[in-house]
Here is the input.
Amino acid sequence: MKNVVSKITWWITPLIVIVLALYGIAQSASAQFKEVRPIRCAASSNTGLSEVWNRYVEGLRHGDAARLSSIFADEGTFHILSKPAGSDTETISARPFSEIIPQWVTNPDKKASGRILTMAVDHNMATIRGTLDFDLDRFDDILTLYCVNSSWLIVGKLTYGRERQPH
Here is the structure.
């Protein structure tokens, strides 16, 4: 019996080592694949701004924090002007992106869509104005960006949220 256990151990141990090594390689490759590259910019050029907007919408649609974090500066701020249902009073709230992005990704909306209305660039600063449509809500957004180390970063987001009008 001792001999049988020894032979089984002799065969299983190398297999476990191989499986664990392959698992480690797969995890490393997966982590590299998920790393999101910066979106390149050039001062006084709108190059890359559409890509920033598309990554923003895709990140919200798929609940992808890595995708969103690649374009939002941690130090940046999210502001929303909203009018709660049944209220006549509008309120403004503000939160840092580092706090709000994890909240955004908890409830992805596979039907989310966005549309750029305007883009403007002045030296190393830019704005994108657009609308985001979710299942029941529409948001009007103004994103402010800096070209930092040759990559676009959103440093501010002004949003107005409301219920979508039926088609």
